[in-house]
TrEMBL record:
Keywords: Glycosidase, Hydrolase, Secreted, Signal. It comes from Catenuloplanes niger. Residues 85-164 form the Carbohydrate binding module xylan-binding domain. This is mannan endo-1,4-beta-mannosidase. Belongs to the glycosyl hydrolase 5 (cellulase A) family. The keyword Secreted applies. Its main location: secreted.
Length: 405
């Protein structure tokens, strides 16, 4: 986190933090959910030399699709609403001393959703994504045909089901997607949620419920979920190659453990070391989003609405087709005695949200920051933070509602 005046302190490297599962705290309205729709796999088309409908009393309706050679069964379906889950009921003939389990590849609209080994008994295999309403193509491919005198490896698919609400946020190039539609957000930083504020006491379940209940639909909340480790302050400049290697390795580990969430970096030091390395640092296949932090409205009383670093950073990100978020933005205010009043800050926040989110490639803004206690103190009479009753949060709710309903 960078605050005004902190440039000369803290990390002496380009990168301060690595944020993971960035959009995990997305509040999804219950009205967005819909019941699963089931389709029978035996209605798909496959070369009769390689597969066919197959009588199986344990399958839905007593029939399934069988594929016994390396081939794909293809077809289409129509989704009445956007969907985020695809569940496939499959089994197969396990055969051979190596690679014995049949392997299945599933694709929607020509894009591979997943590959998996299947067992010798019926079970569901589930993938998540973000697909829109309307017509879609689907295919199931058998990948490792094998047979010998004693056994035969084959694949059977019974049904596939689509469902879910808006679900996980995904990325399509430089845009975020939710429920098959582009997703842009006006969100919040809540650093005290996990105990990083107010004496280290995390929010209670009741406080969390109250907080999320007051947000507009699909509001993004950024918080902290890790303990510090290693050096509190880096003691030397770190080469770009080392930073990129860390980004790529950490992002791959995150995606291996949790493929449903996006990975963002904390490369906010663009203000002090330039932007020429932004594209290089974020080019890894598992890194989804970059972020910058800005508090320039108060910097030397500039009243700046948009940071001057935005244009060059955006250009770098657009060159690799990935989105940028403003991970932190804010200004100091209080009811009285400060350069900016609370209502004045709300007006400035609205201007910032409008200006940033009008720029192609900017996927969202997280405003700093919401707390549960009165943030005004003798040590900090003009804080960046506010409670949810602060007018700036009404401005954020209004913008988020306009963006996402």
């Amino acid at each position: 986190m960078i605050r005004p005046g902190s440039a000369a302190r803290g990390l002496s490297a380009r990168v301060a933090a690595f944020g993971v599962a960035l959009l995990a705290a997305v509040v999804v309205p219950a009205s967005g959910a819909h019941a699963a729709t089931q389709f029978e796999a035996e209605t798909l088309t496959v070369d009769p030399a390689y597969g066919s409908a197959y009588r199986d009393r344990a399958a839905s309706g007593g029939w399934a699709l069988a594929i016994w050679n390396n081939a794909a069964a293809t077809g289409g379906f129509t989704a009445a609403a956007p969907f985020t889950t695809l569940s496939v009921s499959a089994m197969g003939g396990v055969c051979g001393s190596t690679d014995a389990a049949p392997r299945m590849e599933v694709a929607v609209d020509g894009t591979v959703v997943g590959r998996t080994a299947v067992t010798g008994a019926w079970r569901d295999y589930r993938w998540t994504g973000s697909w829109g309403a309307g017509s879609h193509s689907i295919s199931f491919r058998f990948l490792n045909e094998y047979g010998d005198g004693g056994c035969d490896r084959f694949l059977e698919v019974d049904t596939y089901r689509i469902g879910g609400g808006p679900g996980f946020v995904t990325r399509s190039g430089s845009r975020l997607m939710l429920g098959g539609r582009p997703f842009t957000f006006a969100g919040l930083n809540a650093f005290g949620m996990s105990g990083c504020d107010n004496g280290g006491v995390p929010w209670t379940d009741a406080q969390l419920d109250s907080y999320f209940a007051q947000l507009a639909p699909n509001t993004v909340t950024r918080t902290w979920a890790f303990r510090p480790y290693g050096l509190p302050v880096l003691d030397r400049i770190v080469a770009d190659a080392i930073i990129k290697a860390f980004f790529d390795e950490a992002a791959a580990a995150v995606k291996a453990a949790d493929p449903n969430h996006l990975v963002a970096t904390g490369t906010m030091y663009q203000a002090f070391y330039g932007t020429s390395d932004f594209a290089y640092l974020h080019a890894g296949p598992e890194v989804d989003i970059a972020s910058i932090h800005e508090y320039e409205y108060d910097w030397q009383n500039s009243n700046a609405i948009v940071t001057g670093h935005l244009a060059p950073v955006l250009a770098r990100m657009q060159s690799i087709g990935k989105p940028l978020i403003i991970g932190e933005s804010g200004l100091r205010a209080a009811a009285s005695g400060c350069r900016t009043t609370l209502t004045g800050r709300a007006s400035v926040i609205t201007q910032k949200l409008d200006a940033y989110l009008a720029r192609p490639g900017v996927a969202g803004v997280n405003v700093w920051g919401v707390v549960l206690h009165d943030p005004v103190s003798a040590q900090d009479p003009c804080p960046l933070e506010g409670r949810l009753t602060d007018p700036m949060f009404a401005a954020i709710r209004a913008k988020q509602t306009a963006l996402n309903g």
